[in-house]
Amino acid sequence: MAQTPALDIEVRFPLGIYQGAALGRVELLPSPARLFEAFVAAAAAGPHAVRAPIDARSEEARRLKVPKGTTVLSPRDEDIVALRWLEEHEPLGLSLPGAEPRPCQPERVDRYRVKAGISNELDDFEPRVAVPGVIEYAWPSAPPNVEQRLALLASEITHVGRADSIAIVTVRSGTFDPASPNALALHTTRGRGTIVRIPQRGRLDNLLLNHIRLTCVAGKHGKESKARPADRVTSPLLVGTGERRLAPVRGAARWPYDEVLALPLKLRRQHWVLRREYRVPFAAAIHKAIVRTIGSAVPEFVRGKEGENPLRGPGHLAIQPLRRRDQALVAFAIPTHVSDADRAVLLEALEDGLVVAFARRKIVLDPPIRESALPFWSTRNGLMQSAVPVVLDAPGYPRKFPWTLEDATLCSIGYAMRGVLERRDTEPSSGVPQLEWGTGWEFRRALVDHLREHCGVRARVKRVLKSPAPYFYKAREGELIVAVDCVVDLGALAPEPGGFLALGKARHVGGGLLEPNGSAT
């Protein structure tokens, strides 16, 4: 792929640490919107800013009761032209350093407290990210006057993200090759990668408006009585921003899900629902709440039924309560084939969060955060372990051949990855013999042998010496089931490690979730 002329913005963190958050989660690297905010801060509060009067007749000035003649720091006209150019042109992508940014948990002694007190280990904190090297952001090639003003503003940027994330920013003309090994391009479609914010039209005006609000309201806190505290200064952080998927330019990755909607639990005291024995019944209660919220015309992938019959194939919505990076959330994994219309129905039902009735309590979930299903976990380890026991058919000798727990686990992997296997087998270049999908024990044995011999899938299984009842949702009369803990290697089925996947008979309702093996997730 040919290189494209671009405006290169290089960001280097001398301390090797970045600290910031957006969309309710820790940022592994500063989003283009975060970098844009740093440029606006340098233009509006740096040495190049000028004093400008506030229009006392404006609606915002009247609401804040701004006295006539009040002035605030404001960007110069030429800086506003350059910043508007940035928000009106979407970035092309970015290039990472040779080493990938990794999250790290800081010591809690750097948290300042006004009063001494006992700190709960589960209190919210914001992990830092180790960023080795330079991150290069690429925008389309800019006019000379825009490049000159942005280079001048870049020299005044002291930090990107939190104030302790000291940064050195430079601007120059260059090129961007989306096919290079360390390049990540921005995509508008769903799929693998990471969801990041980008600036759009209106972002500059929104930031400057909030700058005026903070300037005019500053100093008024603490003047009211304790019974009636002063109004909080709020900033609509997402106004004037859009979401894009950041991923390498490669062929479409084969994975059962292409998007995850993460709904954090609102109250920390309700995190007990994440115990292993509660996850399946809690996920079932969430499913009932979603169906009730949508009302009529529930999409088939949400209901799990096609008419009155169970939905066949890999297209079920997966609901998984989980903990990741010390954050409790409920993940809704959307299958790859789901149409935009059906996805919009689910998003509309979840846009204000969700209240779930469970165990005579009301569990409150915050609004969803879009994430990619591949990768979902931050890991380089290809081994995955079960966070919740996997419910399988009991081992034995059906149809006169042995059937072990490892066989049952591999068979469950095959059913969970059915869409991937069907696409893989139909590709002439894959070199994999054709596997005709079917039913019955003979097909299951053929599926297990296919996964072992041609896909390199492996599993290590240990039976749970307790009743499997808490870990499955529904079973047919007379069906023999067993619960196991397992460690699996998906082999050639996994394009990269850390994908969202669950196994077993309850994989769509809280059971059999896989997480990175041996990692503190």
Describe this structure in words.
This protein is of the alpha+beta class. It has three domains: 4-108 and 120-247, Alpha-Beta Plaits; 257-371, Alpha-Beta Plaits, CATH 3.30.70; 383-516, no CATH class. Helices cover 25% and strands 26% of the residues. It has eleven helices and 27 strands. It has helices spanning 32-45, 59-64, 77-88, 144-154, 203-217, 276-294, 300-303, 340-350, 405-416, 418-426, 440-454; strands at residues 4-12, 17-18, 21-22, 25-26, 50-53, 71-74, 93-95, 102-104, 128-130, 134-140, 168-176, 183-187, 194-199, 241-247, 257-264, 305-306, 309-310, 318-324, 327-335, 354-358, 361-365, 369-371, 383-386, 390-393, 458-463, 481-489, 514-516. Strands 11-1-10-7-12-14-13 form a seven-stranded antiparallel sheet. Strands 23, 24, 25, 26 and 27 form a five-stranded antiparallel sheet that branches. A four-stranded antiparallel sheet has the order 18-19-15-22, with helices on one face. A hairpin with a 2-residue loop joins strand 20 and strand 21. The longest helix is centred in the middle third of the chain and has 19 residues, at 276-294. It starts with a strand and ends in a 5-residue tail after the last strand. The model is unreliable at 106-124 and 221-235 (pLDDT under 50).
Mean pLDDT: 81
Helix count equals 11
Low-confidence stretches: 106-124, 221-235
Rg, rounded, reads 26 Å
Question: What class would the helix/strand composition place it in?
Answer: alpha+beta
Strand content: 25-35%
What's the topology here?
Blueprint lengths: L3 E9 L4 E2 L2 E2 L2 E2 L5 H14 L4 E4 L5 H6 L6 E4 L2 H12 L4 E3 L6 E3 L23 E3 L3 E7 L3 H11 L13 E9 L6 E5 L6 E6 L3 H15 L23 E7 L9 E8 L11 H19 L5 H4 L1 E2 L2 E2 L7 E7 L2 E9 L4 H11 L3 E5 L2 E5 L3 E3 L11 E4 L3 E4 L11 H12 L1 H9 L13 H15 L3 E6 L17 E9 L24 E3 L5
Antiparallel strand pairs: 1-10, 1-11, 2-9, 3-4, 5-6, 7-10, 7-12, 8-9, 12-14, 13-14, 15-19, 15-22, 16-17, 18-19, 20-21, 23-26, 23-27, 24-26, 25-26
Helix pairs in contact: 1-3, 3-4, 9-11
